[in-house]
Design goal:
The chain has about 100 residues and is mainly α. It has 2 domains: about 1-30; about 35-95. The chain has helices at about 1-10, 20-30, 35-55, 60-75, 80-90. Helix 2 (about 20-30) crosses helix 3 (about 35-55), helix 3 (about 35-55) packs antiparallel against helix 4 and helix 4 (about 60-75) runs antiparallel to helix 5 (about 80-90). The chain is elongated, with a radius of gyration of 16 Å.
Length: about 100
Amino acid sequence: MLDEKREIERLFADNPNFQEFVDLWIEFTEQKTAEARFVKIMDKLEMTIQAFDYQKEGYSKASLSEFWENAEKYLKDTEFEELFKALKKESQDIH
């Protein structure tokens, strides 16, 4: 996490909102707030949609399995689980 923090600090070093961005990144990585957890879930949902689109473009199911498995861990037991399941089911029909 220290390497990531250093990189975030480097990326935003010249930004007038430097500290705010660093604090938001820390909040996101610590996952202690409802907002941080929601952003993480949205990130995983977007990853699922991206995997679905990649599969439609012809990428193999095997090459995308890590996307699906990782997203499922975060989307399970959330209000987005049904959407995840629907996308996963529809992805099974893509050749």
